[in-house]
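User: Please fill in residues for this 50-position structure.
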């Protein structure tokens, strides 16, 4: 449904449950970006910042 955007987040389980975002005990936003997917879809002229 979301194409490559569905692959951007590395999740330990469902991120949305019963219509609500699941809050984790991880620091920050509690998510991890899939750097390979993000790098592959950078806008023209953009550089990786991670």
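Assistant: Residues filled in for all 50 positions:
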């Amino acid at each position: 449904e979301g194409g490559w955007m569905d692959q951007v987040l590395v999740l330990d389980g469902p991120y949305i449950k019963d219509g609500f975002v699941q809050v984790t005990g991880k620091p920050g936003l509690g998510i991890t970006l899939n750097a390979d997917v993000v790098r592959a879809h950078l806008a023209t002229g953009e550089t990786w910042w991670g």
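For context: The mean pLDDT is 82.
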